[in-house]
Amino acid sequence: MPDPLPPWPPTAPAFGRVLLRQVTGADAGMARALASDPYVTATGTLPLHASEQEALAWVKRQRGRHREGRGFSFTIEEQASGLSVGHCGLWLQHLTDGYASAGYAVAPEFRGRGFAAEALAALTAFGWSLAGLERIELFIEPWNTASVRTAERAGYAPAGVRRNYPLTGGERRDMRVYAALRPMGPAADKTR
Protein backbone atom coordinates (compact mmCIF):
# COMPACT_ATOMS: atom_id res chain seq x y z
CA MET A 1 0.00 0.00 0.00
CA PRO A 2 1.34 3.48 -0.87
CA ASP A 3 2.31 5.98 1.79
CA PRO A 4 -0.66 8.02 3.02
CA LEU A 5 -1.05 11.37 1.34
CA PRO A 6 -1.35 14.75 3.02
CA PRO A 7 -4.99 15.53 3.92
CA TRP A 8 -7.46 17.02 1.49
CA PRO A 9 -7.10 20.83 1.44
CA PRO A 10 -9.56 22.52 3.84
CA THR A 11 -9.92 25.42 1.40
CA ALA A 12 -10.39 24.83 -2.31
CA PRO A 13 -7.28 25.87 -4.26
CA ALA A 14 -8.14 28.81 -6.51
CA PHE A 15 -6.56 31.15 -9.02
CA GLY A 16 -8.14 33.79 -11.23
CA ARG A 17 -11.62 32.67 -12.24
CA VAL A 18 -11.36 29.03 -11.19
CA LEU A 19 -11.36 26.93 -8.08
CA LEU A 20 -10.44 23.27 -7.72
CA ARG A 21 -12.90 21.13 -5.81
CA GLN A 22 -13.60 17.47 -5.18
CA VAL A 23 -15.15 15.56 -8.06
CA THR A 24 -18.87 14.79 -7.50
CA GLY A 25 -21.59 12.89 -9.31
CA ALA A 26 -22.78 16.21 -10.75
CA ASP A 27 -19.57 16.22 -12.84
CA ALA A 28 -20.68 13.30 -15.00
CA GLY A 29 -21.86 15.72 -17.71
CA MET A 30 -18.46 17.41 -17.80
CA ALA A 31 -16.84 13.97 -17.97
CA ARG A 32 -19.00 13.06 -20.95
CA ALA A 33 -17.96 16.29 -22.67
CA LEU A 34 -14.29 15.43 -22.04
CA ALA A 35 -14.97 11.94 -23.44
CA SER A 36 -15.82 13.44 -26.82
CA ASP A 37 -12.11 14.20 -27.31
CA PRO A 38 -10.09 11.15 -28.46
CA TYR A 39 -6.88 12.63 -27.06
CA VAL A 40 -8.33 13.06 -23.56
CA THR A 41 -9.56 9.48 -23.57
CA ALA A 42 -6.19 8.17 -24.86
CA THR A 43 -4.34 9.73 -21.93
CA GLY A 44 -6.67 8.78 -19.08
CA THR A 45 -9.24 6.26 -17.91
CA LEU A 46 -12.32 7.92 -19.40
CA PRO A 47 -13.68 5.91 -22.35
CA LEU A 48 -14.24 7.62 -25.71
CA HIS A 49 -17.88 8.76 -26.00
CA ALA A 50 -18.56 7.61 -22.44
CA SER A 51 -22.13 6.71 -21.53
CA GLU A 52 -23.72 8.16 -18.41
CA GLN A 53 -22.80 4.98 -16.51
CA GLU A 54 -19.19 5.10 -17.74
CA ALA A 55 -18.94 8.77 -16.78
CA LEU A 56 -20.27 8.00 -13.30
CA ALA A 57 -17.76 5.14 -12.98
CA TRP A 58 -14.99 7.61 -13.93
CA VAL A 59 -16.27 10.03 -11.25
CA LYS A 60 -16.14 7.20 -8.70
CA ARG A 61 -12.53 6.40 -9.71
CA GLN A 62 -11.52 10.06 -9.39
CA ARG A 63 -13.13 10.29 -5.96
CA GLY A 64 -10.99 7.33 -4.84
CA ARG A 65 -7.61 8.62 -6.06
CA HIS A 66 -6.71 10.32 -2.77
CA ARG A 67 -7.72 7.36 -0.62
CA GLU A 68 -5.69 5.05 -2.90
CA GLY A 69 -2.61 7.20 -2.35
CA ARG A 70 -2.35 8.29 -5.99
CA GLY A 71 -2.92 12.01 -5.53
CA PHE A 72 -5.50 14.76 -5.69
CA SER A 73 -8.16 14.67 -8.41
CA PHE A 74 -10.03 17.95 -8.84
CA THR A 75 -12.90 19.34 -10.87
CA ILE A 76 -12.09 22.74 -12.37
CA GLU A 77 -15.02 25.01 -11.55
CA GLU A 78 -15.61 28.48 -12.93
CA GLN A 79 -16.24 30.45 -9.75
CA ALA A 80 -18.69 33.00 -11.18
CA SER A 81 -21.07 30.45 -12.73
CA GLY A 82 -20.38 27.34 -10.66
CA LEU A 83 -19.99 25.38 -13.92
CA SER A 84 -17.65 22.39 -14.13
CA VAL A 85 -15.30 23.29 -16.99
CA GLY A 86 -12.71 20.51 -16.71
CA HIS A 87 -10.57 18.27 -14.60
CA CYS A 88 -7.02 18.30 -13.24
CA GLY A 89 -4.91 16.20 -10.95
CA LEU A 90 -1.72 16.26 -8.95
CA TRP A 91 -0.28 12.73 -8.92
CA LEU A 92 1.94 12.03 -5.93
CA GLN A 93 3.21 8.47 -6.27
CA HIS A 94 6.77 9.91 -6.09
CA LEU A 95 6.22 12.44 -3.29
CA THR A 96 8.80 10.72 -1.08
CA ASP A 97 11.33 11.40 -3.87
CA GLY A 98 10.31 15.08 -4.02
CA TYR A 99 8.45 15.17 -7.31
CA ALA A 100 4.96 14.78 -8.73
CA SER A 101 3.21 14.96 -12.07
CA ALA A 102 0.17 16.95 -13.04
CA GLY A 103 -2.44 16.77 -15.75
CA TYR A 104 -5.40 18.81 -16.91
CA ALA A 105 -8.19 18.79 -19.46
CA VAL A 106 -10.86 21.36 -20.24
CA ALA A 107 -14.18 20.41 -21.82
CA PRO A 108 -14.30 21.40 -25.51
CA GLU A 109 -16.93 24.13 -25.08
CA PHE A 110 -14.75 25.96 -22.51
CA ARG A 111 -11.40 25.79 -24.33
CA GLY A 112 -9.52 28.86 -25.46
CA ARG A 113 -10.57 30.94 -22.46
CA GLY A 114 -7.52 30.43 -20.22
CA PHE A 115 -9.21 28.08 -17.74
CA ALA A 116 -6.50 25.42 -18.11
CA ALA A 117 -3.67 27.85 -17.27
CA GLU A 118 -5.56 29.21 -14.26
CA ALA A 119 -6.33 25.69 -13.04
CA LEU A 120 -2.69 24.67 -13.48
CA ALA A 121 -1.57 27.76 -11.55
CA ALA A 122 -3.98 26.86 -8.70
CA LEU A 123 -2.86 23.23 -8.75
CA THR A 124 0.82 24.21 -8.70
CA ALA A 125 0.38 26.65 -5.80
CA PHE A 126 -1.45 23.90 -3.92
CA GLY A 127 1.45 21.54 -4.67
CA TRP A 128 3.89 23.91 -2.99
CA SER A 129 1.83 23.66 0.21
CA LEU A 130 2.84 19.99 0.45
CA ALA A 131 5.98 19.32 2.48
CA GLY A 132 8.75 17.66 0.51
CA LEU A 133 7.43 18.45 -2.97
CA GLU A 134 10.16 20.20 -4.95
CA ARG A 135 9.26 19.58 -8.62
CA ILE A 136 6.03 19.14 -10.60
CA GLU A 137 6.23 17.69 -14.11
CA LEU A 138 3.90 17.78 -17.09
CA PHE A 139 4.16 15.38 -20.02
CA ILE A 140 3.04 17.01 -23.29
CA GLU A 141 2.96 15.61 -26.81
CA PRO A 142 5.29 17.57 -29.14
CA TRP A 143 2.38 18.59 -31.41
CA ASN A 144 0.19 19.93 -28.57
CA THR A 145 0.99 23.65 -28.84
CA ALA A 146 -2.09 24.66 -26.82
CA SER A 147 -0.87 22.61 -23.85
CA VAL A 148 2.65 24.02 -24.22
CA ARG A 149 1.18 27.55 -24.03
CA THR A 150 -0.86 26.54 -20.97
CA ALA A 151 2.23 25.15 -19.24
CA GLU A 152 4.29 28.26 -20.00
CA ARG A 153 1.51 30.62 -18.86
CA ALA A 154 1.43 28.73 -15.53
CA GLY A 155 5.19 29.12 -15.05
CA TYR A 156 6.45 25.76 -16.33
CA ALA A 157 9.63 25.53 -18.41
CA PRO A 158 10.92 22.92 -20.90
CA ALA A 159 12.86 20.17 -19.11
CA GLY A 160 13.67 17.67 -21.85
CA VAL A 161 11.99 14.71 -23.52
CA ARG A 162 10.74 11.47 -22.01
CA ARG A 163 11.08 8.65 -24.53
CA ASN A 164 8.43 5.92 -24.66
CA TYR A 165 6.24 7.47 -21.96
CA PRO A 166 3.48 4.95 -21.07
CA LEU A 167 -0.09 6.06 -21.71
CA THR A 168 -3.23 4.42 -20.38
CA GLY A 169 -3.99 1.34 -22.45
CA GLY A 170 -0.35 0.37 -22.93
CA GLU A 171 0.58 2.71 -25.77
CA ARG A 172 3.91 4.54 -25.49
CA ARG A 173 4.83 7.92 -26.96
CA ASP A 174 7.68 10.39 -26.77
CA MET A 175 6.60 13.34 -24.63
CA ARG A 176 8.02 16.77 -23.94
CA VAL A 177 8.60 17.35 -20.24
CA TYR A 178 7.76 20.72 -18.69
CA ALA A 179 8.58 21.32 -15.04
CA ALA A 180 8.02 23.80 -12.25
CA LEU A 181 10.37 23.97 -9.29
CA ARG A 182 9.37 25.01 -5.79
CA PRO A 183 9.99 28.76 -5.45
CA MET A 184 12.92 29.72 -3.28
CA GLY A 185 13.13 32.61 -0.82
CA PRO A 186 11.11 34.07 2.05
CA ALA A 187 7.69 33.73 0.37
CA ALA A 188 8.34 30.06 -0.35
CA ASP A 189 9.36 29.37 3.25
CA LYS A 190 5.85 30.27 4.45
CA THR A 191 4.43 27.16 2.75
CA ARG A 192 6.72 24.73 4.57
How large is the radius of gyration? 16 Å
Spatial order of the strands forming the largest sheet: 1-2-3-4-5-6-8-7
Strand content: 25-35%
Low-confidence stretches: 188-192
Globally, the shape reads globular
Helices, by number, come to 6
What is the helix/strand order? EEHHHEEEHEHEEH
Through-space gap between termini? 26 Å
Average predicted local confidence, pLDDT: 92
Largest beta-sheet characterization? 8 strands, mixed
In total, the number of strands is 8
Provide the structure class: alpha+beta
Residues in helix, %: 25-40%
By oligomeric state, this entry counts as single chain
Structural overview:
With 192 residues, the chain is of the alpha+beta class. The protein is 27% helix and 30% strand. It has 6 helices and 8 strands. Strands 1-2-3-4-5-6-8-7 form an 8-stranded mixed sheet, sandwiched between helices. Strand 4 and strand 5 form a beta hairpin. It is globular, with a radius of gyration of 16 Å. The two termini are 26 Å apart. The C terminus is likely disordered.
Can you give keywords for this protein?
eight-stranded mixed β-sheet, alpha+beta, disordered C terminus, single chain, 192 residues, 30% strand, 6 helices, globular
